[in-house]
Design goal:
Bound molecules: sulfopyruvate, magnesium ion
Largest sheet: 8 strands, parallel, barrel
Number of strands: 8
Distance between the termini: 22 Å
Number of domains: 2
CATH topology of the largest domain: TIM Barrel
Helix content: 40-55%
Structural class: alpha/beta
CATH superfamily of the largest domain: Phosphoenolpyruvate-binding domains
CATH class of the largest domain: Alpha Beta
Number of helices: 12
Order of helices and strands: HEHEHHEHEHEHEHEHEHHH
């Protein structure tokens, strides 16, 4: 499948799933392998997570990497899966022109959903307790318009993410911002919260008039179930970083075992086989291409 045909099909599938308001379940990833594991598990789409991509480079999620590096990671994920890829594009990597450039390059790469947040560039991950600053609503609307203005595929989903709750703003401010973002052309809104419970999200859902699908990221309020999300009218739930956190724990335990035991013998029953690595990376398909 070509990048163009994948992009057209993936964006269409994503848009349809969102408008059906069945809960779209999305898993965070940072490379081809982690994306493939998400698809294999049954997720509807992959989230090219800024936090995960940064951490995979050994860097914190504070706008150190640029568009080219995030896009390269997003492209590896898109190549590895058949489900749509939704890319976390932070602030659009700068100003309005950067946001337009982001839309162009990500669409060209076959990415189906592009998420841009209303923080000031350079941004910090939402769970950093200092330095969280938002753009004025009107300025962020211009950024969304700049991205929308260069969109080629009508099905590409532009998600406008508000960090109003992250910055301690009121429910009314979060609602006002999201309405303005939809007026500016956003196809969906992502409302982020760092509370340890789903209170802010549920209060937002109660007042939101469903004029655009709502995306949530239950990292800190992880007891928010899919059933509750459906009942509240949430359209997409992103498990943004649990995969990478599981990986960190598993690798730490594995290497600690080798250091403690002076051998890898006891690991064999607990870790994926080399055969499994071949299978998930498509060894047989590639060898067939070479005639076996
Ligand atoms: C990411 O995965 O990079 C996100 C989600 O933006 S969070 O880290 O929860 O802010
Ligand atoms: Mg992010």
């Amino acid at each position: 499948m070509t990048t163009a045909s994948y992009g057209t099909r993936g964006a269409f599938a994503l848009r349809e799933a969102l408008s059906a308001r069945r809960l779209v379940r999305v898993a965070g990833a940072h490379d081809g392998l982690s994306a493939r594991l998400a698809e294999e598990a049954g997720f509807d789409a992959v989230w090219a997570s800024g936090l995960e991509i940064s951490a995979a480079h050994g860097l914190p999620d504070v706008s150190l990497l640029g568009l080219a590096e995030y896009l390269a990671a997003g492209t590896s994920m898109r190549r590895a899966v058949t489900v749509p890829v939704v890319a976390d594009c932070d602030t659009g990597f700068g100003g309005n022109l950067n946001a337009a450039h982001t839309m162009m390059r990500y669409e060209e790469a076959g990415i189906s959903g592009i998420c841009i947040e209303d923080k000031l560039f350079p941004k910090r991950n939402s769970f950093v307790n200092s330095g969280q600053k938002l753009l004025e609503t009107a300025e962020f609307c211009q950024k969304l318009e700049a991205a929308k203005g260069v969109q080629m595929n009508p099905d590409t989903v532009l998600i406008a993410r508000t960090e109003a709750f992250i910055c301690g703003m009121s429910l009314q401010e979060a609602l006002d911002r999201c309405h303005r973002y939809v007026d500016a052309g956003a196809d969906a809104v992502l409302v982020h919260s760092k509370q340890s419970h789903s209170g802010e999200i549920l209060s937002f859902m109660e007042k939101w008039d469903d004029r655009a699908p709502v995306v949530v990221v239950p990292t800190t309020y992880s007891d928010f179930s899919e059933q509750e999300a459906r009942q509240a009218g949430v359209a997409m739930m992103i498990y943004a970083n649990q995969g990478m956190r599981a990986q960190i724990t598993a690798v730490r335990q594995t290497w600690a075992t080798v250091i403690a035991e002076g051998s890898a013998a006891s690991l064999e029953m607990r870790i994926a086989s080399v055969k499994d690595v071949f299978a998930i990376s498509g060894m047989d398909e590639w060898l067939e291409r070479a005639g076996g």
